[in-house]
């Protein structure tokens, strides 16, 4: 999830006195929410390609440009990075150069087969200055440009894209072709901006909204070439294609949120991509898990005797979901510990213990201190983290990054689903190493996981149903959430979301626990969400949870039920039913959580609260 901008302008154009650098820097400023690990620009000047790039926020690049200016130019590309392969550094910042410095490229996405391509290019005599998948794509494009592509950038981009696997938006310029920017997209966003005597490219419309509101949407596997007075679209084989022109009605602020009212809502709707991108590149075509990125020896991993998950808040609930999945698949005991409690309870750790920390920010002090303590006790440490190069992964033996992209809203949503996905990936990998699951079983589970993004989208497509429920409850003062098995951490997360952003007392319970005390809370009209498991399968807890619904309903509760599609048995006991698509029980949290996120987001909005920056909270709690 990076910010990308491209620009070409005709000399003597009549629209504005801006040049390439003005446009690119303004676009990157508006796109910085998409990533802020590093930033860079490249322009075509009199003496060819010139670029500047710096780690850190955009301001570092601007300071660099003041100290070391670029020449005036009307052709340029710019990038603000959210690191996936290779930590935040000047070297790993984009653009990356190739063809003897004559070609510059920027990229958003993950190129799955970059390791094979890198070996192929090394064997061909090329060298690399960075650890990134992007530089591999740039060198590949440069090689094709110089040999097979007839020194035509668009043709070369077509041939290069035929070799790439994964998700990518690529922009490239070459000094042989001033006034031309060529771009390609597969599974990553890219949109064209149309001006008078100038044209634009952006990860989204906020990249050029200050200069034009005429935009063209591109389709999958397409290449677009922009010049000052023209844009041409083809597929990856040179066949002409059409884009869909539209007018951007959003104001600039709304554009940064993708047209949504808040970053939180935007990030809820980003979840299909967050899950898909976190799965990407972590299994092969035969359904074998491939976690080459883990720096813990496979034999050590195969020999672990216990897993302890360390996390806080929402991330701890992701760990609670992981407990069910990993214990079921791997037969390894999994303890989930709140980081701030862990090191004060004199825990039992040894070399057979694998510590799995889960943290979106990678800076949560409670979790960092717990990981340090565990390392001192001799445990192996693995970080599941969404922020490349942050402290916790840096201090861990290994890291499994989630690829949810920057999560701006304080209330975590897409990172939560990405964390759960990453724990499933880890669990399947451990099961493969230890022989707990046959490859066929892993392949089946992966197939179910690959269906999840579309199923999340199915839920999102019906968001208005949930929003309407929230709008009907503006005066709610207390909401309870019930769930069993993996539905229990979902209930806990649903309660946390409501507390965090709507400032309403909310509490999650294991549904079976209610009769041991909490049911005394139920009085007439008490709203109770119930996450109901699938009725399918021999061990279904469905009938028990339906009994729990009846227990609270008999005492006046307003029962709000999240159930699996086709489950009509719940309808007689529910004021409100929202169905999520069928999926295996262990994967259900990836679907059942979404309505609860939407409910909290809408109710907070209805109450007029700042959804993205709720009171008393910080996005990363860097104090103990
Ligand atoms: C979740 O909505 C909250 N913002 C909070 O509970 C958060 O999950 C917790 O502070 C842990 O943060 P981390 O994932 O960055 O470590």
Quick structural gist:
With 624 residues, this protein is α/β, with parallel strands linked by helices. The chain is 35% helix and 23% strand. Residues 312-315, 359-361, 364, 367, 410-412, 500, 620-621 line the site of 2-deoxy-2-amino glucitol-6-phosphate (AGP).
Itemize the secondary structure elements and their pairings.
Layout: E1 3-9, H1 20-31, E2 38-45, E3 48-55, H2 58-67, E4 75-81, E5 96-98, E6 103-111, H3 114-123, H4 133-146, H5 153-161, E7 166-174, E8 181-186, E9 191-194, E10 198-202, E11 214-217, E12 222-227, E13 230-235, E14 244-247, H6 252-256, H7 263-269, H8 271-279, H9 298-302, E15 306-311, H10 313-330, E16 334-338, H11 339-342, E17 353-359, H12 365-376, E18 380-385, H13 391-394, E19 398-401, H14 414-434, H15 439-460, H16 463-471, E20 478-483, H17 487-502, E21 505-510, E22 527-531, H18 542-553, E23 558-564, E24 576-580, H19 589-606
Residues 312-315, 359-361, 364, 367, 410-412, 500, 620-621 line the site of 2-deoxy-2-amino glucitol-6-phosphate.
Which key features would you list for this structure?
single chain; 624 residues; alpha/beta; Glutamine Phosphoribosylpyrophosphate, subunit 1, domain 1; Rossmann fold; 3 domains; 8-stranded antiparallel beta sheet; 6-stranded antiparallel beta sheet; 19 helices; 35% helix; globular; binds 2-deoxy-2-amino glucitol-6-phosphate
Q: Can you give a write-up of this model?
A:
The protein is an alpha/beta fold and 624 residues long. It has three domains: 3-249, Aminohydrolase, N-terminal nucleophile (Ntn) domain (Glutamine Phosphoribosylpyrophosphate, subunit 1, domain 1, 4-Layer Sandwich); 257-454, Glucose-6-phosphate isomerase like protein, domain 1 (Rossmann fold); 462-614, Rossmann fold, CATH 3.40.50. Helix content is 35%, strand content 23%. It contains 19 helices and 24 strands. The strands form four sheets. Strands 3-2-4-1-10-9-11-14 form an eight-stranded antiparallel sheet, with helices on one face. The protein has a six-stranded antiparallel sheet with strand order 5-6-7-8-12-13. β15, α10 (313-330) and β16 (334-338) form a beta-alpha-beta unit. The longest helix has 22 residues, at 439-460. The two termini are 30 Å apart. The relative contact order is 0.08. The model has no long low-confidence stretch (mean pLDDT 94). It binds 2-deoxy-2-amino glucitol-6-phosphate. 2-deoxy-2-amino glucitol-6-phosphate (AGP) is lined by residues 312-315, 359-361, 364, 367, 410-412, 500, 620-621.
